[in-house]
Amino acid sequence: MRIDVAQASIVLPVGTAFNAQHSWQDRRSALLRLQDDAGHVGYGEATPLPGFSPDDFESALAQLRGLTPDAVVRTVEAFEAGSFAASELCPSAHFALECAALDVAAQRRGESVQRFLERNLAATVAQPVQPPRDCDLHDLLGGAELPQVASGTVKCKVGRDLVRELDALRRLRQRRPSLRIRLDANGSLPPADVERWLSAWAQIGPEFVEEPCSLEQLGAPRVLPVAIAFDESLLSAAAPGPSSRLAAWLQSGAVRALVLKPMLLGGVAATVRWIHVARQHRQEVIVSHLFDGSVAAAMYRQLARFGSSAFAMGLGPHAGLRLWRDVPLLAAADGSTLSRSTNR
User: Fold this and answer.
1) Are 139 and 157 in contact (CB under 8 A)?
2) Less packed terminus of the chain by CB within 10 Å, N or C?
3) CATH class of 136-322
4) pTM
């Protein structure tokens, strides 16, 4: 098994990659290429988001460079057997390894990645496979103009200037009565103010509000003015047991969805486990990105086919995705340049 690792970097336009608490311009990615003795080639990508992901680029790059053929073969063979291989890699590096290994495993079976996932995972998640619809991210404070989208779904970040944002949301709802609006606070609300702002946002009629504050800060499950969704909180709530706080919230009727970011959660296997948790608790599943590249985006779209039929996915095109497609990759360790495959 041949293993190649290369780097790429981009600079995003100001104001195109942000959440309620941070913004990003410099993005760095480690690209993994696997090739077995039969010539099957698979690609993976590790692009952690600084200040948001639990890992960092340097760790991911070092771990991918330290991969051994035995570890890669175990991962490929586990996929071929319809199971998952454990590893000690950080989340983004493990995501890259699983993407590339799954690519190789599917080719060995003479299948597309999509078909391989459908055959091996559809029964696990008990959800019909479907093409995902996309939700686009918009900045309410980025200028005088509100989002011009007249239909479909938009996602608006809230938490930087709550009063101005609420005014913009009211104007947006007045102009676009049928628009599906989703809010994301990225855990920015003080716990004491959560219900106050959820009540204010309820007047807008959002689908739900992602992460008003962390799961730990929410306290006991209760009825809320508007439905919520969990995203970042899933990092600290791995494998929720029946008596866990997360399970109690999922059973409370106050939660509408789990937002899954495979690069953040640690790969295909981790994402599938969370899809299974969501189905057990009758929650919707939304797959989303970290402003990362085309290799990751291709896998997200495959996993999103097992997501919600009621809600759009968080996979609308972003500035980073367009730039990653054009940037030349740095040389691999042997001096070659990794090509990029998005036909998955």
Assistant:
1) yes
2) N
3) alpha beta
4) 0.89
